[in-house]
């Protein structure tokens, strides 16, 4: 099969996307597919005819993930065309030549449904969920509203738009986060009034709307769901701080345990809540739900990730591995679910 792995972009998760894309690229090549890896934003400015016949290692030039967010202005300056389109030179032409596009994108544009809607209009098959569920899950405030309507346990909280008066109904400590952020970029834990005001100010630099929610002190878990069926539960324990951008992607920053050391009843509850969230958010193909569990063993679903990380440190491949599935088999499974 001719497959384009689409990565990069201009979200704060650009580096993460390249790491995911590289792993997917090599995994699918090992499964025998004709695969190319390109940056959705910078594109491929050369002649793209017969591109799948090129003898080229597309993953060789991709860098590693740094501890800091990428310099997106520097990335934008690298574009040589008129930059009117989010899609770089020849990207859509190349995707039209493929049997499938594997979306290894993370964050804004990759996960907000716009690319999915574009591909739907152009008749280009792609991995992951559709444009409607992508847009819903990208908005953490809307996700929480849907959870509340369908008995998915989630922390109490409010949405606040820039310039809107703060009702201050969420007690300290609390979590402040950008409504449409990802990879814990723009997420802050506030213990004092001063920290709270600073957290709001910082979060508003990422988005015009933020979520302020109850802080759940306890253990953190994640549950991947493929075709509506939950994978084993993984526990994520950062060595320092919380599961932020650095701890998500720097090797040795967390202790991951899969399957998580939990009583069977709690494991089943987490998996059941993950499957329920998958259903009520109208997700298809695959996704990953993040959870907290407090000291009384009450679980709370924080959010849904519609294009979970596929980096060497990402949790979805670890969960799949706990079932005996290799990263190659996982990628092949995600390819097959795109056609269901």
Observed structural traits:
340 residues, alpha+beta, 4-stranded antiparallel beta sheet, 13 strands, globular
Structure characterization notes:
It is a single chain. By secondary structure, this protein is of the alpha+beta class. Helix content is 32%, strand content 21%. It has helices spanning 14-30, 72-77, 91-97, 114-122, 131-138, 140-149, 193-203, 245-249, 264-280, 315-322, 327-337, and strands at residues 2-7, 34-39, 100-103, 157-161, 174-178, 187-190, 209-214, 218-226, 229-230, 234-238, 254-257, 286-294, 299-305. The strands form 3 sheets. Strands 8, 9, 10, 11, 12 and 13 form a 6-stranded antiparallel β-sheet that branches. A 4-stranded antiparallel β-sheet has the order 4-7-5-6, with helices on both faces. Strand 5 (174-178) and strand 6 (187-190) form a beta hairpin. Helix 1 (14-30) crosses helix 11 (327-337) and helix 4 packs antiparallel against helix 5. The radius of gyration is 20 Å and the shape is globular. The relative contact order is 0.15.
Brief sketch in words of this structure:
This protein is an alpha+beta fold and 340 residues long.
